[in-house]
Amino acid sequence: MKVFKTKKDLKTYFSNLIPKKSKIGFVPTMGALHKGHLSLIRTSLKENSVTVASIFVNPTQFDKKEDLEKYPRTTERDLQLLKDVGCHVVFLPSVEEIYNQNVSSERFDFDGLENEMEGKFRGGHFDGVGTIVKTLFEIVSPNNAYFGEKDFQQLQIIKKMVVKNHMNVHVIGCPIYRETNGLAMSSRNERLSIEQRKEASIIYSTLLEVKEKIKVFSVKEVNNWVISHFKKHPLFELEYFTIADEETLKNVSEISPDKKYRAFIAVYADSIRLIDNLSLNN
Ligand code: PAF
What is the number of the ligand 1 atom nearest to the C-alpha of 54? Predict the structure, then answer.
C-alpha cells in the first residue's frame, strides 16, 4: 500500500505507474475507521482496478472548534486497517497541503438541500464538506466515489455538487453498516458508555417501527409517536425526527405512492450526537 502526503507525489504516482485505463475508486474519510468504512473500501476494490482512500480531518466542516479538537485521530491504526483490507493507495495530506494558509470554505448552492435537517443544526457544515470533497475529487480524479448512506443528506449534496460542477465522478451510496443491535456504525459510537451503546438500539428499532406505522397512520401521528417514544427514554434526547422526500429532503405531511421517502433521526446521548435514517419504500 502506498501512502502519499502531498498532491504532487500522488499525481506523479498516478501519471507514472498506473496504466492510463485504470478505473479509480475513491473513499474519502476523516479517519477513526470502523467496519462501515472498510465495507466501502471492499465495494470499491470489487468495482475498480485501483482503490484510493483519503484520511483528512477537515477543519472547515466543523461548526464547533471543540468538536474538531476532540475528533479522534488514529492514523497508525487506520493505515493498518486499510493495508489489511487491501486498499492500494492512501492520501494523507496536512491541513496546509489542502488549504495553504486559507482555511475557509467555498460557498455552495445545493438547491436548498443544505438547508434541511443537518443544515439547520450545523451552520456552514455542508459548505465545508463540499469544499473538501470537490478539492479531493480534483486531486484524485476518481471514476467512482463511495459514501455511506448514514450521512444521506451529505450523499445527496455531493451528488448535487458533482452535477452542478460538471465533474466526471460517479457518486455511489452504500448501505448503512450496523452493529449487531442495529446501531449505525460511527466513529462516535466509541464514546458511548456500555449502557448507552446497548440502549442505542432504540434508534434503529424506532425507524423500523416507523416504517410499519406509516402504512396505517398519518405522518403527523407517526411524528407524534416518535416524540413521545423518546420522551420515555431517559438516556436519549431527540433532536429531530422527520419523514422527507428522498430527492428534495423536504419534510412531507403526506405520503404519495409514486415517490421515495426516508425517515431521518438525530438524537443525543449526553453530548454525543447520533444520526440514522431508513428508506420507507422497500
Ligand atoms: O463523511 C465524512 O467522513 C466526511 O464528511 C467526508 C466525506 C470524508 C468529508 O470530509
Answer: 8
The single residue of 34, 37, 166, 229 carrying the catalytic annotation is 37
Q: What is the pLDDT of residue 18?
A: 66
CB of 26 within 8 A of CB of 140?
yes
Same domain, 214 and 142: no
Find the domain containing 228 and state its range.
Answer: 187-277
pLDDT digits (tens, 9 = 90+) for 55-82: 999 999 998 898 899 899 999 999 999 9
Whether residue 105 sits in one domain with residue 11: yes
Q: Is 224 within the bounds of a domain?
A: yes
Query: How many CB atoms are closer than 10 A to CB 30?
Result: 19
Active-site residue 37, yes or no?
A: yes
The C-alpha atoms of residue 223 and residue 242 are separated, in whole angstroms, by 7
- The alpha carbon of 157 and the centre of ligand 1 are apart by a number of angstroms equal to 12
Residue of minimum CA distance from atom 8 in ligand 1: 29
| pTM of the shown model | 0.96
